[in-house]
Amino acid sequence: VFAKELVQIDPIEEYLADQRAQGHDINLLHFYLSVYVRVLAERPKLNRFIMNNKYYARNGISISMAIKRRLVDEADETTVKFNFDGTESVYQVAETVNQTINDALTNSEDSPNVDRLVNFILGLPGIVKKGLVGLLKWMDRVNMLPASVIDVSPFHASLFFSHLRSIRGRYVYHHLYNIGTCGLFVAIGRVEKKAIVVDDEVVVSNCVEIGYALDERICDGLYVANSFRLVEKYLHNPHLLETPLEKIVEDVE
Question: Which residues contact 34 (CB under 8 A, 6 or more apart)?
C-alpha cells in the first residue's frame, strides 16, 4: 500500500538549530532516522517480514540508504545500512549514522561493503551470474543465506530510506523490492511551500511530503494508522527523542 504525509518543516528546523546552538551536531537525516527507529521499536509489527509464506519477527532494527560519493551524475553510488537496537536517542542515532557513512565513504574495513559483493557478481559471466543470483534467492527462501551476505545486503532491512531533499528531489512512492526482507520504504522530498489549514485558517507554510510504500501483509490497517499517528507525534515533538527508549515492545504474536 502507498501513503503520503505532509509535514511542516520550520518547527523541526528551528528545533535542530537550537540543538546545534547547544553543541549537538544533529541534522535532518539524524532526526528523521531517529523517528523511524523509535516507531519501529514501539510498533514491532512494522518490523516483520514474510519469507516463503511464513511470518518472522526481525532481530534488531536496520535502515538502508543509498548515498552518492559526490552530487554529480557520474559519481559512484553506494548503499549503507544502519543497525540499531531500538533504544537509541537522537544523539546516539547521529553517532551511528555518521560513523557508518564515514566508514562507507572511506572504504573502511570496519564497514560491511555491499559494493564488493555486487562487483564480484557483476564480474561473472552472464549464465554464471544468473545462476548465482537464483541460488542466493533460493537460499534466502529456505533460510540458508549466509550471514555475511545478509549483513551487507540493503534489501534485508527493516526500512529503506531515501532523503530526496539532499538532491533537491520531490517525494516519490518507491516500489518494494522482490528480493530480501524489506517491507517498508520511506522517501522524503524537498521543502516546498504549501497551503495548509492551521486553526481554521489557510496559511502558506514550508512543508515536506513523505511517501510511504508498505507491505500490507505484515499488519492490519488499524495498526498502520496508529503507527502513522505515532510518527506524527515524534515529528511534532522532537524533544521526545532526546532520551533513550527505556523498553522495546516485543513482537509476541
Answer: 88, 89, 90, 93, 94, 234, 241
Q: Quote the pTM value.
A: 0.91
How many Å apart are CA 17 and CA 209, to the nearest integer? Answer: 21
- With H, G, I as helix, E, B as strand and everything else as coil, classify residue 95: helix
For the chain, domain boundaries: 2-68+81-99+155-241
Q: What's the distance, CA 50 to chain centroid?
A: 18
Identify the CA nearest to 90 among candidates 166, 22, 189, 159: 22
Q: What is the rounded distance in angstroms from the CA atom of residue 173 to the CA atom of residue 4?
A: 8
CATH class, 2-68+81-99+155-241 region: alpha beta
| CA distances to 133, 153, 156, 196, 233 from 181, in Å | 16, 10, 5, 37, 27
Question: Worst-scoring range by mean pLDDT, 81-85, 111-115, 118-122, 148-152?
Answer: 111-115
